[in-house]
UniProtKB/TrEMBL annotation:
Pfam families listed in its UniProt record: Rdx
Domain of life: Bacteria
Protein keywords: Redox-active center
Keyword Lyase applies: no
Name the record gives this protein: SelT/SelW/SelH family protein
Keyword check for Membrane: no
NCBIfam families in UniProt: CXXU_selWTH
Organism: Salipaludibacillus keqinensis
Length: 47
């Protein structure tokens, strides 16, 4: 995992180079359940 500092309100979540969430695109922060669901989907897909 890597945290990449930014400025201007950027907030994006990427897993293995694949973007799973972007505040730039949605103009809002994600609900934590949304992020957890995305991560579980990636984990289950890779199993």
């Amino acid at each position: 995992m890597e945290l990449i500092p930014s400025s201007g309100g950027a907030f994006e979540i990427s897993v293995n180079g694949k973007k799973i969430y972007s505040k730039w695109e949605t103009d809002q922060f994600p609900d934590h359940k949304e992020v957890i669901n995305q991560l579980e989907s990636i984990k289950n897909y890779g199993s």
